[in-house]
Design brief:
mainly alpha, elongated
């Protein structure tokens, strides 16, 4: 079942928040760390910036009326 625009917008905003959190963690020195026998390596900062831009573009498109399709009115026909 397809998501409604509101559901998709909510999901995209949640994903954007997660990406922003990861970027912030890297900026504060948490690119990778280990605890006991477990290690965590975050995505490269460049990848996170690209994902943030992609998510923001999708959010902007939905909030401005729906992506690549726009209504066009022709007068005089």
């Amino acid at each position: 079942m397809a998501m409604t625009p509101d559901e998709k917008l909510t999901k995209l905003k949640q994903q954007l928040e997660e990406v922003e959190t990861a970027i912030s963690a890297i900026h504060t020195g948490a690119q990778s760390y280990s605890i006991a026998n477990r290690s965590l390596q975050r995505a490269p900062l460049e990848s996170l910036y690209r994902e943030r831009n992609r998510l923001q573009q999708e959010i902007d498109a939905i909030e401005s009326g729906g992506g690549i399709f726009r209504r066009v009115y022709f007068e005089g026909r």
